[in-house]
Write a structure and sequence with these properties.
single chain; alpha/beta; TIM Barrel; binds zinc ion; three-stranded parallel sheet; 10 helices; 269 residues; five-stranded parallel sheet
């Protein structure tokens, strides 16, 4: 274990569990690109250097926790070695129906390696359909089939899931709990005190977010998180006004991606 990693453990041991700030990543890419949720490998390296420093810092702040949604192959080929080189782990949420049979997404061998090295694995649905669009039977299939398949293939219990597109309502949350999940990761930008509750907020990280801005986000008294919360509330109000499907279509046009309800890719949060 490297010295910084050891120091970060010591900080928690002496101060008790710090409030968490969960950060949501998707794809990593080698160079520049237009897809806003893909982040460059060099930039990601700067982010995780910041996480190591933040965890070791003497002054209190949020404890950064990286998570990944979708199961893109770059999570394994790019993010995993970078995390390993800093002694860090991350939580990976997998679109289970894509595993092993969709180009550019991880297979079971990659997932077993991540799990074996201490990276918690969670579900992200079976087909990445927005759960708020599912009828009861579809909802049950998206939630149960993905959990049971992960458990079978990885030989471990799966208790966490993240919501495709971040969409949820009371009915979806109840179905998640009924399907055996005890923690549901959302895209609501908020910090979490420990122990975690049933829903866990996360900050969606975009490719243009500089480490200096994330450093401000990790300060407990910073206004950066409040601004994100205001922006999130405005986006939610826009979705309610336009309707989910129109919002999806507009988001895909602006970002030159297929709407995720038809292609299955991306998170138009
Ligand atoms: Zn997703």
């Amino acid at each position: 274990m490297d010295p910084l990693h050891f120091e970060s453990k010591t900080k928690e041991q002496t101060q008790g569990p710090l409030p968490r700030l969960y950060l949501l990543y998707h794809e990593l890419r080698a160079g520049e690109g237009r897809y806003p949720y893909a982040i460059g490998a060099v930039m990601f390296g700067r982010h995780i250097d910041l996480f190591v420093r933040a965890r070791a810092a003497k002054r209190p702040g949020f404890w950064p926790e990286p998570t990944f949604d979708d199961g893109h192959i770059s999570n394994y080929e790019v993010a995993y070695p970078l995390l390993q080189s800093r002694g860090l782990t991350a939580r990976f949420f997998i679109t289970v129906g894509w595993t092993g049979n969709r180009l550019d997404y991880m297979g079971w061998e990659e997932l077993r390696s991540l799990h074996k090295d201490g990276n918690p694995i969670g579900a992200h649905g079976w087909t990445h359909t927005l759960l708020t669009h599912c009828n009861d039977r579809e909802l049950q299939a998206e939630l149960s089939k993905s959990r049971l398949t992960l458990e079978d293939k990885l030989g471990t219990s799966i208790a966490a899931m993240s919501l495709p597109g971040g969409r949820y309502n009371r009915r979806v949350l109840d179905a998640c709990l009924q399907a055996g999940y005890t923690q549901v990761y959302t895209s609501v930008p908020k910090a979490e005190s420990m122990p975690l509750g049933t829903t866990v907020g996360r900050v969606n990280i975009l490719g243009n977010m500089q480490p200096e801005w994330i450093e401000r986000l990790l300060q407990i008294d910073s206004s950066a998180l409040c601004r994100l919360k205001r922006r999130y509330r405005m986006k939610e109000a826009t979705k309610r006004l336009l309707g989910d499907r129109l919002y999806e279509g507009l988001w895909a046009i602006v970002n030159r991606r297929e709407p995720e309800t038809s292609s299955g890719e991306g998170d138009s949060q």
